[in-house]
Amino acid sequence: MKSYSRITLTFLSSALIVSAVEKTPAPGPEITPPSDAWKAKVVNLAPTKPRVTPKAPRKILMCSLATGYCHKVIPHVKEVIDTLAATGAFEVMHSDDVNLFDAASLKNFDAVILNNTCTRNPARNLFIDALTIRGDLSEAQRVERADELEKSLIQFVASGKGLMAVHGAVVFLNNSKDFGDMLGASFRKHPKKQWITLNTVDPDHPLVEAFKGEPFIHFDEPYYFNKAYTHKNFLPLLEMDVSQLDAKAKETMKGDRRYVSWIKKHGNGRVFYVSPSHQPESYESNRMLQFYLDGIQYVLGDLPCVDSVKK
Fold it and tell me: In sequence order, what are the residues at sequence separation of 6 or more whose Cβ sits closer than 8 angstroms to the Cβ of residue 244?
């Protein structure tokens, strides 16, 4: 009887663990613009209030300009951020005008969100790309202005403000050592999209509280980072389970831990990188939406947590 009870309890415990694992809906054949039904679903799943009360009214500048690869999930991410803003944690201003990255303009904001701001080869520099498209400056003037804007953004964060970079935003200034050091990585490549299992690195960290210590399975691009990433000068939050990837991806990812989200200090400011996701289905999750909101409150300076690098 005791043996039977033990087996029963073990089975029930296993069932509870399995039931706690979240797997997002399978992706459709193609990514379509956010429908009213999709928006309503996100609103229904999203938190209705912030994790912590803001210390002051907060304002975020969100840039969604892509001059290189244009992720079709960009408008979905904008909807997600607008939905999270409705909690009262912050106000968001959307603009793709790169001139807002100058010091005089940035002083009006508490943080910047870069939404899949992918850039063109070979420069891999959104400022140069945008200024080239505008066409009213010489090449030398474009380079000088782009350098000014990059320094302005980096100094903005270092002064005590925040930066959140979503998915393809890692390519924003991909050839810049200074930006890569601030963000914690540069983009190298990714294997094909596939189901990815994410695990919390430290289940007790407040920024991953939403995942309740359980895996999160979604369809995404397994990003492969280089340059600053090799130093791991950040506090990792989420990690890919490489053992669950396909054979080609496993080969690409072997020999290192593959983090997909982290936080870090930069001067007096805060940085939050989140690779999830290439797919809108990843946002059909209360856990992912809460994770985003908590990360935003961290970069705004409202949600205190350990963000020092563990040696």
Answer: 195, 196, 197
For residues 80 and 73, what is the distance between their CA atoms, to the nearest angstrom? 11
* pLDDT at site 311: 65
Any idea what the CATH number is for the domain that residue 240 is in? 3.40.50.880
- Read off the pLDDT of residues 248-297 as tens digits, 9 standing for 90 and up: 887 877 778 899 999 999 999 999 999 999 999 999 999 999 999 999 99
Helix axes 286-299, 74-85, angle to 10 degrees: 70
Contact criterion met (CB below 8 Å) for 162 and 270: yes
pLDDT (0 to 100) of residue 160: 98
Is residue 23 a part of any domain in this protein? no
Nearest Cα to Cα of residue 51 among 307, 235, 296: 296
Rounded distance, CA 280 to CA 33, Å?
10
Checking if the pLDDT of 16 tops 80, the result is: no
Q: Which domain holds residue 48?
A: 41-299
20 within domain boundaries:
no
Worst-scoring range by mean pLDDT, 13-27, 99-113, 233-247?
A: 13-27
Q: Are 92 and 81 in contact (CB under 8 A)?
A: yes
Q: What is d(CA 215, CA 213) in angstroms, rounded to the nearest whole number?
A: 7
